[in-house]
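Task: sequence design from structure.
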């Protein structure tokens, strides 16, 4: 899978491209269908205001959110995609900087780790996984995310922090 990555203000300096590429490789390890060489996805690191606008326009939700995913392929089409042929756009993902930073601080994790989780979450949505269908689907998607993030040395984002 090829990633087309754009980073806009106010995202802080960092190697977001390398992080996204690492996340994509870990995503492929838990969702092998993402490993098709024909696939391409765009990833936009942007502002809350931009994500708010996208959320309002495309999802009719008038608020910012941490990550948006816009799949371009149906899951069945992704699973049936042959190795040979022209490039196929899997979809688009947008991450909102201020919301991601706030959530990372609330969780007590780095912005990089939280962004990695959200990129992974977005890629799994592009692959057709959905945590909003049922509790079983949510559990399955969370397990995939936890396994992929562990490969990057990132803890379980769904685990409650230990209090003393």
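Answer:
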């Amino acid at each position: 899978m090829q990633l087309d990555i754009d980073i806009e203000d106010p995202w802080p300096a960092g190697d977001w491209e390398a992080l996204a590429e690492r996340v994509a490789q870990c995503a492929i390890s838990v969702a092998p269908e993402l490993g098709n060489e024909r696939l391409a996805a765009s990833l936009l690191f942007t502002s809350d205001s931009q994500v708010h606008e996208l959320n309002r326009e495309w999802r009719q939700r008038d608020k910012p959110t941490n990550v948006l995913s816009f799949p371009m392929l149906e899951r069945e089409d992704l699973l049936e995609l042959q190795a040979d042929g022209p490039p196929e756009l899997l979809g688009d993902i947008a991450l909102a900087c201020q919301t991601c930073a706030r959530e990372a601080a609330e969780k007590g994790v780095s912005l990089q780790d939280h962004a990695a989780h959200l990129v992974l979450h977005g890629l799994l949505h592009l692959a057709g996984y959905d945590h909003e269908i049922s509790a079983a689907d949510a559990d399955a998607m969370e397990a995939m995310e936890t396994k992929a993030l562990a490969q990057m040395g990132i803890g379980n984002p769904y685990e409650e922090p230990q209090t003393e």
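The chain has six helices and four strands.
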